[in-house]
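hi! just following up on the protien thing from before. the input was this:
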Amino acid sequence: NKPAGLNHVAFVVRDIHEVIGGGLNMNRSEWSTFIGPGRHPISSAYFWYVNSPLGGAFEYYTNDDYLTEEWQPRVEEHRLELFT
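and the predicted 3d structure came back as:
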């Protein structure tokens, strides 16, 4: 078993340009990309994850969906593709 720890910290930014710019800047600063850039299938959010020297990862993201009163819950089979 792995010890408990931080998975990731997420920072919401204004738009896709800040996601890309932030990810590129972090790479130039020698923070390696964990995954991204990409788009989450469930929330439609654009993302870029970088490995943190503190452990875990940092995520830049933007443009996630909002729930309306018409939203209905549904069951999804747990698959990695739903989250990355």
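Helices lie at 16-28.
The CA atoms of residues 65 and 83 lie 14 Å apart.
cheers
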